[in-house]
Queue: 4 jobs
Job 1
Amino acid sequence: MLSGKLQDALNEQMKNEFFSAYLYMAMAGYFQSEDLPGMASWMRIQALEEMIHGERFFNFLCDAAGRTELRPIEGPKNAFSSPLEVFEFGLEHEKFVTSRIGQLMDLAREERNHAAEVMLNWFVTEQVEEESSFSLIIRKLKRVEGDGRGLLMVDQELGQRTFVPPAPGGA
């Protein structure tokens, strides 16, 4: 059901999703060290979501009679100069993921693999949400730049995010 080329590309994206989780945990660690527990919590939830995204690729490969290949993951960036830099870095990372999902979708269409297209369509929509979330937080951080009280308010707001596990059959 999967060509070797598509299987390889899906395995690479599975690695990218697990790397994303690793990156967001590093960001959570930065926020913990800066006494911003709300932002740390937000990033931990982001990391959990990325683990589920990686698992979605894993499950699709298994269901499509493909072969999963867990690949080495590079160490993420751990040092940041500000919360704004963290979220800007996160947005650039999400833009990279969006481009990779688009390339995967193009490959699935080229190979006329409709099952892969359907699975990837969920990620296309998800990436719009991911980039939007990071962009909104960046705009808020820019508004409160230099205002410690404003930063703490953003931190408190982000700390309200809760993890909602996907429904059965969902991501």
Note: The CA atoms of residues 38 and 156 lie 5 Å apart.
Job 2
Amino acid sequence: MLCQAFHRFGQKLIRRRILQQDMAEAAPTRSLKILDLVALGLGHTVGVGVYVLACEVASNQAGPSTMICFLMAGLSSVLAGLCFAEFGARVPYSGSAYLYSYVTVGELWAFITGWNLILFFVAGTAIVSCAWTLVFDNLPGNEISQTLRESISPHVPHVFVEYLDFFVVGLVLLFIGLLTLRNSEIFLVTKVFTLLKILVLVFFITSGFIKGDLHNWKLTEADYVKAGFNDTSSLGTLGSGRFVPFGFEGILRGAATCFYAFIGFDNIVTRVEEVQNHQRSIPMGIVISLLISSLMYFGVSAALTLMVPYYKIQPGSTLPEAFLLIGWAPAYYVIAFGFLCSLSASLLGFMFPIRQNL
């Protein structure tokens, strides 16, 4: 009896969802096309990574060869995206890794995957919200955070954060309000944010190729000395110069870091029930959005390393700060505006699946 009870319990843990049971349920209006899915994928994929990771990888991991890192990471993401595309074409229901795990490997693994996804989306919402307020705070010279720190910090226990950021709370409440709109209206807001940030990134790439200098891709020891690094024996952290200053090892480390920049394409499969001809549109939407993202990252990293020598980029810097280094202060605010639009689209991308899954 005990063995039979354990056997039945084990079968329940690995039982898989039978999709045919849900075929009779009414489906929502299928109105999304490939272009809509590409906009959705770009809205979530081209986000924080292009503004933060490009500077981080270029400064101390790959130098000018950052563009190769993004291409390698983009190729890996396309392969992962093809796996999602196959599941999305075979399973005509809104979901992501949770549903696919439920269908293929069983309920226990789907349960674990589902809670991991919820944790991922909640943590992503918190991180992007904080990044949004930091960028907004940098525009007036960090006066907002300084005021909050002086007025609130003495009265709040330093348990989780240094001070209570009301802007983060207000921003999250604002986007929660947006999530009460219809899906079509949320999608329209996402497309507007996506279009704005793509235009800003095109402006950055164009400016980089206009202001850039090819000599920044072939720096030598003499350039380091001219820049003020008199003891050239201590240039280990700066690499050896040229196009690949940190060697092939640096490219591999940079590619592993850049892979994070391509997360978000799985957001497309959360709208599969609204897609016309999902077996064709889902794969093409994922692949096209990833290819465009790879080209955007490639162009941004090329423009960045052409404009600014990689050793001048400080770890933790963001993309708008590149214009401060070359003396184009007005352009800093243009790129910062694009950064805010990008973070807003990413924030909607993190919060929308939470509403769908809960």
Note: Residues 119 and 310 are 35 Å apart (CA to CA).
Job 3
Amino acid sequence: MTGQAKTPEPRRLYQQIADQIRELVDGGEFAPGARLPPERELAQRLGVSRPSLREALIALEIDGSVEIRMGSGVYVSVQPPEVRSGTKSLGESPSELMQARAALEGASVQLASSRITPAAMENLRATLDAMRHEIDAGRKPLDQDRQFHVIIAEQSGNGVLARLVENLFDERHSPISAQFRVKFEDKNTWIFALQEHEAILAALEARDPLLAQAAMHLHLDSSRRRWVEN
């Protein structure tokens, strides 16, 4: 008895766009070492959004096909790698990931606003204090950021929702999301994130579910813009 054939994983949009760019390079449209057109022009030419294009360019940089020089542009690598099977998956689309998180965490914070315990509220405040300390010290408060969101999800009273929030949050360690962090996160982005966390906590302290949901949506949408759209 033979096993059931494994269904191929659907190719993500950034993989498809990266393959299109690679085809242009392989076809001689852009020579090794050449600068690619500006993002806006290239996105229009390919008929895609700029966030999706940026994800594709990051994927191409990871596999060594292009070099992104901040403030200068994107250049075809002088010796680009030979890729025969197309751009491999490097994790979920960062833009889609943040949209999914906004939907789930908006629901979880709304539920948590009427159920959160005083102890959890204290833990959130302590987490933000620790986050501020890490930022002041010039470090990225990744652990504190995760803890803040996980505490809220756990206080929703829905274990399934809490697990989904954790899983989506940890997707930020995928190769493509990690590369976005390296390029587009700095002290200022974390200062903004901390301020947005403070607004979420204030809404929870007020026991206002709609305000809490709005604050979470604003935070995650702002994070997506800082992270993906820069």
Note: Residues 209-229 form the longest helix (21 residues).
Job 4
Amino acid sequence: MMIRLAAMADLDRLYEIEVQNFGQKEALPRETLAVHIQNIKTSFLVYEKENRILAYIEGPVVPERTLVDRNFYEAKDFSEKTGGYISITSLSVAPEAQKRGLATILLDELKQVAIQDGREGINLTCHDYLIGFYEKQGFKLLGPSSSTYAGEKWFDMLWENSR
């Protein structure tokens, strides 16, 4: 098992997992994932076992405390600046690897990146049925999100770096 930064060679597998989990409506477009791989310097992590990607987590470092929709499309990464937040735009586990704790492992690894890099925290949006999962991971519910991504109703979640 290895957790590493994403590379352009991973794009096809990452997009396959993205669509399997989110469907065409909510999935990040393949071109967007490619831009994220190119632009996100410290917070696009893949979980790989036996040379096969089973899960990934990604999102840019941004100044905003809550996720804004442009992060899904632009992935302008502020990782060269101090502070800020990692804004998760996708956390996805391949169907054959679900229910094995990989999402928790990747969230824990991303928290370590946030701590190491001096980030103020990690933010994300999720559907209401995932609020409990993220609360178990140390995230706080901030309330309904202003995000309109994919025409869905989202909730803002925040993990704050206390170190």
Note: Strands lie at 2-5, 44-49, 52-58, 61-62, 85-87, 90-93, 121-126, 140-144, 155-160.
